[in-house]
What we know:
It catalyses: a 2'-deoxyribonucleoside 5'-diphosphate + ATP = a 2'-deoxyribonucleoside 5'-triphosphate + ADP. By secondary structure, the protein is α+β, with helices and mostly antiparallel strands. It has ten helices and seven strands. It has a single domain (2-198), classed as Alpha-Beta Plaits (2-Layer Sandwich).
Amino acid sequence: MHLGVKLLMVSRQLPSRGHTFALLKPDITSNPIILKKVIERIEREGLSIVEGKRLRLTRDEAGKLYEEHKGKFFYNRLIAHVCSGPVIALKLTTANESLDDPVILWRKILGPSKLFKNWIESGNSESLRNSFSLSDTRNVGHGSDSIHSTERELKIFEPFDLVNDELGEKESIINRLIPDLKEMESDIMEGDNNNKVMD
């Protein structure tokens, strides 16, 4: 079910360097402050958002996305989680020719899916999953593992909503992905001011 939130398409013409599919899960989209940090990290690490949309997944869409996991012990829990709230589907590309392939780069930024086991083994405390995961299922997001899976997964979510905007690109991306961010930041600032008055 589409929630009708439009997302900026990067307006400058990017050379074709391939792309990847990313899905930000409800454990991240439900917290606008953390979601903003995740989007900023995606951009800071050299990925550009080409297309995307915010939506609520149906069980059918979730089943298509995770069809390779059908029958595994965690499948029903995974489907229930990604259908529990809004998700953000993104088509990403690399912003610089010298960077890794977008599939590899996004999975590197995202980090290993098995949170605790891989955190101990890899010591990769810089990944998004090691920073923000709550469990192996509530683990920030999903990333395609190949060009083939990228194409298959993008088709599940097409068409994406596109808005061209040459000015204030970063601000537009964040505002369209996180419509309630300004209100939450305002509430936080108001809370800080109230604390100062009470001190």
